[in-house]
Specification:
Layout lengths: L10 E2 H12 L3 E4 L6 H4 L7 E4 L3 H15 L3 E5 L3 H15 L4 E7 L26 E3 L7 H13 L5 E7 L6 E2 L15 H13 L3 E5 L1 H5 L3 H11 L2 E4 L15 E4 L4 H8 L4 E5 L21 E5 L2 H6 L4 E4 L2 H11 L25 H11 L5 E5 L4 H7 L8 E2 L9 H11 L5 E6 H4 L5 H7 L4 E7 L4 H10 L14 H7 L4 E4 L2 H13 L4 E6 L11
Parallel strand pairs: 2-3, 2-4, 4-5, 5-7, 6-7, 9-10, 9-12, 10-11, 12-13, 13-14, 15-16, 15-17, 17-18, 18-20, 19-20
Antiparallel strand pairs: 1-8
Length: 537
């Protein structure tokens, strides 16, 4: 731990780095090895775990899921140049997800760098920008352990995010001393004057609305937000495109999910005389338009640990700081309000069985079968509306998806989440198009015998693209149909059992088999190819 003395004797950069990694709790390494990584991997210590991914994009997303589910920085070892390039899509997602990652990539040996050798990275520290908080290739081999310690502290400081260190292959054998490790605070307290202004506004409001985002879950503040909502009588909305759930979706004060469309979002919030955004941007939109809620007629406050999000917010008062340090003060200063009416969320009629299966019926069936402590990792954008209607998230740390909109995240992220939370079942809910971006992660799930149910919603193509093409009019564009994919066979090729369901009976039996499995299991569900849900855009 941090209070322990590090060995001050000369040792190899490799030994000093491993000593730093032990001290920082980064003894699980996610990687896909290449020739420039072999010196780092030699004489692998028995107290370290190596999680192999078969492609770097899968490796990055597995580590992202692991970091989010543990709340600690995950260590990634990637190949130089092209290897990091393969991971860049999910690196962008990790940056948007505020996932604390320390990425170390091999570089060719220093002695041959001037000759542009095979497999070297030119301007290695610049390559992953702007989707890292900090990156470097240390000027001296002796500086590598300290650079990795620095990368950890930056990754873990709010707002969390990825960091990157490029290490030439011959640096690991150079002699150095392990750096002295320090404690670095990771949370920032809010401005007390601005917090008092928010408390005054809450005390005067007759119809407040809370908009909650991922920071609530990341900081473990579910109970405080529920208590504040019940104390104020506020309606609670989930922020647009929230990638973690921040409030129990079966709570009577849960109002629903704000759409990422300016006009539709403004309509949802129009009846409120105060909007308080807790741990989310103001606001993430997917389409252009005029947001009346941002015109200044309704007071708007935001608490966020991301100064960047506070700076670009187009309206309102932004308070930078930790929710864990803010909410106790707000609770203490806010009086209990009585007699405030909260409009109950619309109850959807029960979905009916049919052939082909509908997304609503599938989600309703999953909700009926899934264990209470299940963790849902989702990447089925065509069917997110059905999921939100039929599969409520009721517990903290129980939902993960990608903040970026980039596909290929959630299947490997489910593996990382399961590695981090081995006592809880994981349900990976994913579309057919999304599955094909990182199917290699099925192999890792099998090798670790993880309790993951992979549910592939197969509508024969990119359903979101079909929906958007209908929205904007005109003929259907090319390249959106995906005929002939067999996900059960794909899973079987990597040792993962699976079945296909296309009607209510096979859906019931398939769900029962999947959830009874002791290890990974894939359930492919065939749906109507014309179904996609973008009703609010």
């Amino acid at each position: 731990m941090f209070g322990e003395e590090l060995d001050t004797q000369l040792m190899s950069v490799l030994d000093a780095t491993r000593q730093v990694m032990r001290q920082l709790g980064m003894t699980t390494v996610f990687g896909n090895p290449g020739s420039t990584e072999i010196p780092f991997l030699r004489d692998w210590p028995g107290d370290f775990d190596y999680v192999l991914g078969l492609q770097e994009a899968s490796v990055l997303a597995m580590a992202d899921g692991y970091a989010q589910a543990t709340g600690q920085a995950a260590f990634i070892n990637l190949h130089s140049a092209a290897g990091l390039g393969h991971a860049m899509g999910n690196l962008m997602t990790a940056y948007r997800n505020n996932a604390p990652l320390v990425i170390v990539a091999g570089q060719q040996t220093r002695s041959i760098l001037p000759t542009q050798p095979y497999l070297y990275a030119e301007s290695a520290a610049e390559f992953p920008k702007p989707y890292v908080k900090w990156s470097c290739e240390p000027a001296r081999a002796e500086d590598v352990p300290a650079a990795i310690a620095r990368a950890y502290h930056i990754a873990m400081t709010a707002p969390c995010g990825p960091t990157f260190v490029s290490v030439p292959a011959d640096d690991w054998e150079v002699l150095t001393r392990a750096p002295q490790l320090r404690r670095v605070s990771q949370r920032v307290a809010p401005d007390p004057v601005m917090l008092a202004e928010l408390c005054d506004a809450l005390a005067k409001s007759r119809s407040p609305a809370f908009v909650v985002g991922a920071q609530v879950d990341r900081e473990g503040c579910w109970d405080e937000v529920v208590a504040l909502a019940e104390r104020t009588g506020a309606a609670v909305w989930e922020a647009p495109r929230a990638f973690r759930t921040a409030f129990p979706e079966d709570h009577p004060q849960f109002a629903g999910f704000l759409p990422p469309a300016p006009e539709a979002l403004s309509r949802c919030l129009a009846s409120h005389d105060l909007v308080v955004v807790l741990g989310a941007p103001v606001f993430i939109f997917h389409v252009p338009g005029e947001a009346a809620i941002l015109q200044g007629a309704v007071p708007l406050f935001q608490i966020t640990d991301d100064p960047g999000a506070a700076a670009w917010a187009p309206a309102g008062t932004a308070i930078c700081g930790s929710l864990a340090l803010s909410l106790p003060t707000i609770l203490e200063r806010t009086p209990q309000r009585m007699g405030l009416d909260v409009v109950a969320r619309k109850v959807e009629p029960e979905a009916q069985p049919s052939v082909p299966l509908t997304p609503d019926y599938v989600m309703q069936s999953i909700a009926r079968h899934a264990p209470a402590d299940v963790i849902v990792v989702e990447e089925a954008p065509s069917h997110r509306g059905a999921m939100q209607r039929r599969l409520p998230i009721r517990r903290p740390a129980s939902f993960y998806t990608m903040a970026s909109g980039g596909l290929g995240y959630s299947l490997p992220a489910a593996v990382g989440v399961s590695l981090a939370q081995p006592s809880r079942p994981v349900l990976c809910l994913i579309g057919d198009g999304s599955t094909m971006y990182s199917p290699q992660a099925l192999y890792t799930a099998v090798q670790h015998n993880l309790p993951i149910t992979f549910v592939v919603m197969n509508n024969g193509g990119y359903g979101a693209m079909r929906a958007f093409s209908r929205l904007i009019g005109g003929s259907a564009p090319p390249g959106i149909d995906l005929p002939g994919l067999d996900f059960v066979a794909l899973a079987a090729s990597m040792g993962c059992p699976g079945v296909r369901a296309g009607d209510p009976q096979t859906l019931e039996s398939g769900l029962a088999a999947a959830l009874a499995a002791k290890g990974p299991f894939l359930l492919e569900i065939t749906l109507d190819s014309g179904v996609a849900d973008f009703r609010d855009i």
